[in-house]
């Protein structure tokens, strides 16, 4: 980022993506159609739903064989039985729920319904998270960097809820091309005190900014370019953004749901 430069976000319209389509070509063609020229350090943000559909991460609910456990979860939390079965399959851990939703851990992320979503998924289907979001982001970055001739970052963005807060914000479930964490430990605050624990999650900060422009209805703005982001571009794998639940203020208070009850 140039010193003093403002961070700028550009929403780009995309066509409705179909299963199996090459997402790198769709993105590149959308940029060309909008006469948008990528620059060094731009971060390409894509809605996770678009990536999932392109990667065929879609299930038809009517084809799901519902287990007894899924039926119990569906009855307890007023969830469609087929949807409950998909969530049960996708979740690494189920911690409980409320009416209509299960609280789950998926890929180390505390999220609703293990990322399984009906919204903006073809009728009769549910869309899942990409199997390996960081790998998906890395592949897109390699391809788009080659096409555009610039050093880029890529983020796959989904929505999440914050405990005890109303509404959704953005979260980066897949990242490639830039340092995701700014470590402030050992630095000094305004009054000279040494900072002990603070690390800034730059990826999720940027994901929330992109999410603001993407929307979650029918905007078709699932592509957002962030320019002049205050990050360092790298070719190495990003810092892992999840950590052991035992060291997490919230995660340490959660217990796996007894699926036998």
Q: What's the helix and strand layout?
A:
Elements: E1 8-12, H1 23-33, E2 43-47, H2 48-54, E3 58-60, H3 68-77, H4 81-90, E4 93-98, E5 101-106, E6 109-112, E7 125-127, H5 133-148, E8 153-161, E9 168-176, E10 181-183, E11 199-201, H6 202-214, E12 223-227
Parallel strand pairs: 2-8
Antiparallel strand pairs: 1-12, 2-12, 3-7, 4-5, 5-6, 8-9, 10-11
Helix pairs in contact: 1-5, 3-4
Give the N-terminus to C-terminus distance in angstroms.
53 Å
CATH fold field value of the largest domain:
60s Ribosomal Protein L30, Chain: A
Cα shape? globular
CATH superfamily of the largest domain: CofE-like
What is the CATH architecture term of the largest domain? 2-Layer Sandwich
**Spatial strand sequence of the major β-sheet:** 1-12-2-8-9
Rg: 19 Å
Average pLDDT for all residues: 91
């Amino acid at each position: 980022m140039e010193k003093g430069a403002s961070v700028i976000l550009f929403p780009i319209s995309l066509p409705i993506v179909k299963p199996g389509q090459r997402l790198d070509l769709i993105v590149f063609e959308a940029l060309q159609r909008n006469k948008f020229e990528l620059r060094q350090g731009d971060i390409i943000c894509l809605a996770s739903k678009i990536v999932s559909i392109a990667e065929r991460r879609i299930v038809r609910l009517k084809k799901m064989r519902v287990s007894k456990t899924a039926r119990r979860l569906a009855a307890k939390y007023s969830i469609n039985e087929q949807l409950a079965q998909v969530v049960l399959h996708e979740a690494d851990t189920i911690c409980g729920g409320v009416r209509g939703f299960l609280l789950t851990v998926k890929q180390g992320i505390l999220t609703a319904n293990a990322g399984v979503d009906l919204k903006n998924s073809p009728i009769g289907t549910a869309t899942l998270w990409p199997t390996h979001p960081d790998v998906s982001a890395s592949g897109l970055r390699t391809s788009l960097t080659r096409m555009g001739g610039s050093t880029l970052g890529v983020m796959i963005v989904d929505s999440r809820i914050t405990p005890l807060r109303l509404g959704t914000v953005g979260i980066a479930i897949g990242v490639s091309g830039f340092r995701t964490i700014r470590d402030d430990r050992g630095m000094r605050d305004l009054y000279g005190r040494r900072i002990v624990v603070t690390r800034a999650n730059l990826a999720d900060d940027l994901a929330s900014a992109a999410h603001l422009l993407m929307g979650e209805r029918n905007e078709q703005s699932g592509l957002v370019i962030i320019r002049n982001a205050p990050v360092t571009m790298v070719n190495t794998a990003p810092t892992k953004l999840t950590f052991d639940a035992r060291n997490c203020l919230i995660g340490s208070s959660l217990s796996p749901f007894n699926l036998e009850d």
